[in-house]
Design a protein that fits this description.
about 150 residues; alpha+beta; Nuclear Transport Factor 2, Chain: A; globular
């Protein structure tokens, strides 16, 4: 695969899969053995666990839209700077999923991250995710500056 093809795979995941809530695209671009490394937490292992976490996130922020801001590619890796903007209109179970549930607040959220994806045979097989959950929790009022 070319570097441009690898970038297109990641872009498709955001713009068509996540923004369009098209699970067939998620199945197409994420490998069944996908693993997502999240700082300080257990990795998300497997496409099905990822889809469960993603579905929960999209339920919590049903109007969220992701924007791919920039991408760099080298060898089998694609670094993607992206942003998300939406409204906390559903129960939020954290990301990755946790036992703590945050009731809908109606508050707007806006965040960004710089993630690295490893592509193999036209699919995303591994991700190093940098989304900072505290940013989202702060914006929905679950934590304050005094805590």
């Amino acid at each position: 695969m070319t570097l441009e093809a690898n970038k297109a795979i990641v872009r498709r995941a955001y713009e068509v899969g996540m923004n369009g809530r098209d699970w067939s695209v998620i199945d197409e671009v994420f490998d069944p053995k996908y693993i997502c490394h999240v700082p300080g937490m257990e990795p998300i292992r497997g496409r099905e666990d990822f889809k469960q976490s993603l579905a929960s996130f999209l339920d919590a922020f049903p109007d969220i839209q992701f924007v791919v801001e920039d991408q760099l590619a080298e060898d089998d890796k694609v670094t993607t700077r992206w942003s998300g903007k939406g409204t906390h209109s559903g129960e939020f179970h954290g990301f990755p999923l946790s036992s703590k549930v945050y009731a809908p607040t109606g508050r707007p959220v806006e965040f960004s991250a710089n993630d690295i994806y490893r592509i193999e045979n036209g699919r995303i097989v591994e991700e190093w995710n940098t989304l900072e959950p505290l940013v989202v929790l702060h914006q929905i009022g679950a934590i304050t500056d005094q805590e």
